Amino acid sequence: MLRVVVAPAVLLGLAACTSGTPAAEQDACTAIHAWETGGRDPERYDHAVASAQDALSEPGRGSLTAAAEALAGAAVPDRATAVEGFLARCADLGWQPPEG
User: Fold this and answer.
1) Other C-beta atoms lying within 10 Å of the C-beta of residue 98
2) Residue 25: which of 48, 57, 47 has the closest Cα?
3) What keywords appear on the UniProt entry (predicted)?
C-alpha cells in the first residue's frame, strides 16, 4: 500500500517543479518583462524586443512569434499596450515573472 501512496506524491512533487513554458519562451518573456519593470527606457526597447525575437528564432518556438512581431512593429505610443499584450500571452502559457 505504501507504494501506491508514495508514487502519486512523488509525481505531484515533480510536476510542481517543472514549468510548462519552454526555455526559449521563458527567455523572451523575461526580456520584455525586464524592459517593462526597468523603467520602460525608450532607448532599450529595441534591444529588449530583439532579445525576445532571438530567443524565439529557433524552429518550433512559434507560440509567441506573432506577439513578438507585434512588439517590433509597435509605434512608440502603442508600445506599453503591445508589451502588456505580450506579457499576457506569456502568462497564458504559464510563464511567471522571475522573483527578486
Assistant:
1) 11
2) 57
3) Signal
The rounded distance, in Å, linking the Cα atoms of 12 and 32 is 31
C-alpha distances in Å from residue 30, one per residue of 7, 8, 18, 37, 92: 34, 32, 17, 10, 14
Q: What is the pTM of this model?
A: 0.76
CA atoms within 13 A on the CB side of 55: 22
Using the Cα atoms of residue 54, residue 55, residue 61 and residue 62 in order, give the sign of their dihedral: negative
**Quick one: angle between helices 79-92 and 65-72, nearest 10?**
170
Band of residue 59 on the pLDDT scale cut at 50, 70, 90: confident
Amino acid at 43: E
How far, rounded to the nearest angstrom, does the alpha carbon of residue 77 sit from its chain's CA centroid? 23
pLDDT band at residue 11 under the 50/70/90 scheme: very low
In this predicted structure, the answer to whether residue 4 has a pLDDT above a threshold of 70 is no
Distance between CA 93 and CA 26 in Å, rounded?
10
